[in-house]
């Protein structure tokens, strides 16, 4: 009979097993896997499932926040999910997530988000598609905007705190974006295998925008050209936006393509003279509501809206989420109390895309994911309406 045990790794042998799983799952060189595993172990972010004493599956948890309705909601990101080849197909990943989600719920975390390699596994444990990440390509030659009114200079280490504050102001206005922690900032500044060069734009109030970029050679064409990949691009004023785009356009003699990630509604594209860009879906991300009450009360709502929604939620993994709740919204703030009439009935999976605004209540009804009367559907549509949720960062 198999016995399971869950928790952080205990010793060097288990760290080596995690590195081996990571190498095989993601086709990474072993030395790279070992470096990643040791860094994550030092931050107490690794979790494993042991089966009969052997490391069968692993994941990395990432503590951060997500801006929803203008407020930062505490969030547990999940990355590095891997299963040892000998344990694949036996439910090890599902059992790992059962333990992990219970731990995070008991810790008080309201939300978890991940990018899925496969959706059925994560749907079984209560995740659902709740937003998107888009890849944006712009022709460098089209970024000749003639704007140099603000000064631009290379970023210095002493700028880090001001840059992070600039990002946070910017991200709070972008529905779904991360309230980053150290893990994500490392990926921005030191992307794996590359060097990111940072530049800041300064105005009267200090840093108004910045960019981190990586240059690489394009394999296309007889004459080598560069692709400029941005690991971050932030502008908090129109002048900063124009200056940063002009700076990127100054690469046109060497680079044809400038690429970054964001939402389908990227505002910087509105500054271009022509449609010299492409926006394409990179990947959808999935959300798991860990605590219905805390999640609903933590996010923001439009200040001018008010209303009450009677929910009937089912959660077969975290029974504390099962039952009737009344969501009351007033002045941009939500309060949740148990009870009510349960007019809108849905599984916790369906609550995730409703919560982020990725799918409307009537779309969820059409998909067979919720039932409710017209008045409840209209109330839910009004309360959860807003910009499409997106993420810039991969994790």
Structural features, described:
Helix content is 29%, strand content 36%. The chain is built from 11 helices and 18 strands. The protein has helices spanning 12-26, 30-42, 92-107, 119-124, 160-171, 182-189, 238-249, 292-298, 348-356, 361-366, 374-383, and strands at residues 4-7, 46-51, 54-68, 71-83, 111-114, 128-139, 151-154, 178-179, 197-203, 206-218, 225-235, 255-262, 277-289, 306-314, 323-330, 333-338, 344-347, 370-371. The strands form 2 sheets. Strands 1, 2, 3, 4, 5, 6, 7, 8, 9, 10, 11, 12 and 13 form a 13-stranded mixed sheet that branches. A 5-stranded mixed sheet has the order 16-15-14-17-18. Helix 1 packs across helix 2. The longest helix is centred in the N-terminal third of the chain and has 16 residues, at 92-107. It is globular and about 60 Å long.
Keywords:
Aminopeptidase, 395 residues, five-stranded mixed sheet, 3 domains, Nonspecific Lipid-transfer Protein, Chain A
Number of strands: 18
How many individual helices? 11
- Strand and helix order: EHHEEEHEHEEHEHEEEHEEHEEEEHHEH
Q: Strand percentage, roughly? A: 35-45%
Query: Can you name the CATH architecture of the largest domain?
Result: 3-Layer(aba) Sandwich
Query: What would you give as the CATH superfamily of the largest domain?
Result: Gcn5-related N-acetyltransferase (GNAT)
Helix content: 25-40%
Enter the CATH topology name of the largest domain: Aminopeptidase
The low-pLDDT segments are none
Oligomer: single chain
First-residue to last-residue Cα separation: 36 Å
């Amino acid at each position: 009979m198999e016995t399971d045990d869950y928790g952080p790794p205990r010793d060097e042998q288990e760290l080596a097993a995690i590195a081996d799983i990571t190498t095989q799952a993601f086709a990474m060189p072993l030395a790279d896997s070992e470096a990643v595993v040791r860094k994550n172990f030092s931050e107490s972010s690794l979790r494993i499932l042991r089966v009969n004493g052997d490391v069968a599956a692993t994941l990395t948890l990432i503590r951060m926040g997500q801006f929803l309705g203008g407020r930062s909601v505490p969030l547990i990101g999940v990355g590095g999910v891997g299963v040892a080849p000998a344990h694949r197909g036996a439910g090890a990943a599902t059992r790992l997530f059962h333990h992990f989600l219970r731990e995070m719920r008991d810790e008080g975390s309201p939300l978890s988000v991940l990018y899925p390699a496969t959706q059925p596994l994560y749907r079984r444990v209560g995740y659902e598609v709740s937003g998107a990440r888009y890849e944006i390509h712009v022709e460098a030659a089209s970024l000749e905007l003639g704007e140099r009114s603000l000064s631009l200079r290379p970023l210095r280490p002493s700028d880090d705190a001001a840059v992070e504050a600039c990002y946070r102001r910017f991200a709070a206005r972008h529905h779904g974006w991360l309230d980053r922690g150290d893990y994500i900032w490392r990926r921005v500044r030191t992307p794996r295998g590359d060097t990111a060069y940072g530049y800041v734009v300064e105005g009267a109030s200090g840093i108004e925008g910045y960019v981190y970029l990586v240059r690489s050679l394009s394999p296309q064409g007889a004459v080598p050209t560069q692709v400029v990949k941005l690991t971050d691009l932030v502008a908090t004023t129109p002048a900063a936006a124009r200056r940063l785009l002009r700076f990127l356009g100054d690469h046109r003699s060497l680079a044809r393509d400038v690429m970054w990630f964001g939402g389908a509604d990227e505002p910087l594209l509105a500054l271009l003279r022509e449609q010299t860009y492409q926006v394409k879906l990179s990947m959808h991300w999935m959300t798991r509501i860990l605590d219905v009450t805390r999640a609903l009360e933590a996010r923001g709502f439009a200040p001018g809206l008010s209303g009450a929604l009677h929910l009937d939620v089912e959660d077969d993994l975290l029974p504390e989420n099962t039952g009737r709740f009344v969501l009351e919204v007033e002045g941009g703030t939500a309060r949740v109390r148990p009870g009510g009439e349960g007019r809108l009935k849905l599984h916790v999976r369906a609550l995730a895309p409703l919560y982020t605004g990725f799918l409307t209540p009537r779309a969820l009804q059409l998909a067979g994911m919720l039932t409710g009367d017209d008045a409840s559907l209209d109330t839910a549509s009004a309360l959860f309406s807003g910009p499409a949720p997106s993420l810039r960062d991969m994790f």
